[in-house]
Amino acid sequence: MLRQIHIFHKNVCIFNHSYAMGLGDEELTNVTKIIQSHLDLPMLGKTFQRPVTNYQIFHRASKDVLFMFVTDLVDQLNRVEPIILKTIDKFNEIFSLPNEIMESTSHQESFNEYLIPLQHELHSKVAIIGPTNAGKTELFYILKKGETKEIMNFAVSSNYGIDDLNFDIWDFQLKDNFSLLWSKFISGSDLIILLFDLSNYHLRVIEHFKTFQKQEGKLSKFLIIGNKRDLVEDSDMKLIKNELDMDDFFELSLVDSDIKQQLDLIISKTLKLKESLPKNFQEMINQVKRLELEGKFVLSIVKYKELIKICNQYQDLSYIQTFKEKVKEIQKKLEEQTKLRKIRESKQKFKVPGRISFSQKPMVKSLPTSQSRDVTGSTTPEIFPPIKTENDISQETSKIEDLTLFTKEDNKKKTQFLTPDDIKIKIKPKQKEFKPDKPKENIAFIIEKSTDKKAISNIDYPLELQKFIEQKGSSLSINLCQQLITDLQSALSRSVTSEDLETVADVFVKSELKI
Predict the structure, then answer these.
(1) For 136-178, where are the E strands, in sequence order?
(2) CA gyration radius for the chain?
């Protein structure tokens, strides 16, 4: 089935359209690196095919525009190429210049309307197989939409629609479970549904139908449904599961009132169809815009990153590029604010000094008199000794006392020392009483559990630190967060708490803003 369409112009992705889950944002970036040579120098007149993980890509160039289609591995070039050519012709018809698709909203909407039914032209196939009397025909008429076409006398086909997507659904009404035609009819199917009766089944027959998928439908999605669940008791269901040894099958009853909704949900998950964005997504976008207008740039960056995560989860690539550009724009505003703040702070550091005022009245000495002049005519100023204070006198007296401590008389005195012979101590030997060893008792060691919930809680500290940093408007890889936690634990010599993580996040964001 056709999953995504991506259009590139001058190495830039200018348009995305998704029918189902396919390449995510990072996967698309990696794929563009693989086909970088075709983006730099487009090769006209040829469609190229390349498998990529669980999908495959088809790309073809027209002038300086490259069209890339993402499909399942089961799709073939001879079916995909006509759709690519139609898309290129319609694009050149609507847009005279490639960049107009990013500017003109009305033209973009008309192009999207053309692409929606284009998926059905690939004729993606859903095949229903299973033993006789399992309820295959009943399942076919529950899912079908529109007219029914008979194929000879052993098969019918119709249209099956889900989430604006259309598939060709086939029911093979073969009465022989071991007919050779089964393997031929399921080849090329996007989805194979194996239906069997939970109340009356045969293990050998079920295993026989499972081999068809391994032989002819290796690239197809495979869905196993057990019908007539209402006829089986809950106690018997455990035995049936053990006997079948299959954990990947669904239990249903085709007579339920909401069976169509149940089947649509199961088929959507099996085919990995695209889910719609949350209902409050537009409200979240308006909230971020209000924060940006109010000048709360850090908080708006955090909210934009949350929206990018949601878009990655639902693979809505059209919003992701817009939100990423918004984050870059706000980060530039924050950098400009940081530069202006640094300039203001530098101006405050170098202020012009104010008027100097003296705390004491200045004293001016009088000029020398004639008596103080000598014969040569030079003046000799009178030098007065400094007035001694009580502290100076006490210091002098203490110095004199220190000098008189050791005189010659003290030096003549001999010091008497004791020899080891002068010291005599009698130590009585202590007799040790003999006591037999008692058998050791079994001591039950009790390990007290720590009551510190923060220390023993199983918290992913690197992930928590990354969340704190992202909430404050920045980002850091999980490996660097792990290294930061390791350094923090070695520095603190204790267990790390959530308060420590929040403090580290604050310091990191502030230091990043200063840079």
Answers:
(1) 145-151, 155-162, 165-172
(2) 44
Locate 500 and state its tokens.
């420590």
pLDDT at res. 386:
56
pLDDT at 214: 83
| pLDDT tens, residue by residue, 461-475 | 888 888 888 888 777
What is residue 379's DSSP assignment? B
Q: Which residue reads 């040829």 in tokens?
A: 46
CA 483 – CA 479 distance, rounded (Å): 6
Tokens of 215: 């032989």
| 171 phi and psi angles, rounded to 5 deg | -120, 115
pLDDT at 264: 94
The dihedrals phi and psi of 319, each to the nearest 5 degrees, come to: -80, -30
**Non-local CB neighbours of 6 within 8 Å, separated by 6+ positions:** 13, 15, 16, 23, 28, 67, 68, 70
Q: Which residue has the tokens 């992930």?
A: 463
Q: Which two tokens stand for residue 311?
A: 């878009």
Q: Which residue has the tokens 């890889």?
A: 477
- CA separation (Å) from 2 to 52, 81, 84, 352? 14, 12, 11, 72
Cα–Cα distance between 269 and 275 in angstroms, integer? Answer: 9
Q: Model confidence over 405-455: pLDDT tens digits?
A: 444 454 444 455 556 665 555 555 555 555 555 554 444 433 333 444 444
Ranges of the chain whose pLDDT falls below 50: 375-376, 400-401, 403-408, 410-414, 440-456
The three-point CA angle 181-246-259 to 5° equals 75
Say what the alpha-carbon torsion angle 296, 299, 302, 303 is, to the nearest 10 degrees.
-80
Note whether 225 and 250 are within 8 A (CB): yes
- Strand bridging mode 65-72 / 55-62: antiparallel
Nearest residue to 304 via CA among 333, 276, 275: 333
Give the containing element (helix H, strand E) for 211: helix 203-216
| Cβ count near 514 (within 10 Å) | 9
Gap between the Cα atoms of 233 and 221, Å rounded: 30
Tokens for 282?
């537009």
As beta bridge partners, residue 48 has 59
**Nearest CA to 114 among 81, 82, 91, 98?**
91
Q: What are phi and psi of 13, to 5 degrees?
A: -80, 115
Closest CA to 163 of 198, 208, 124: 124
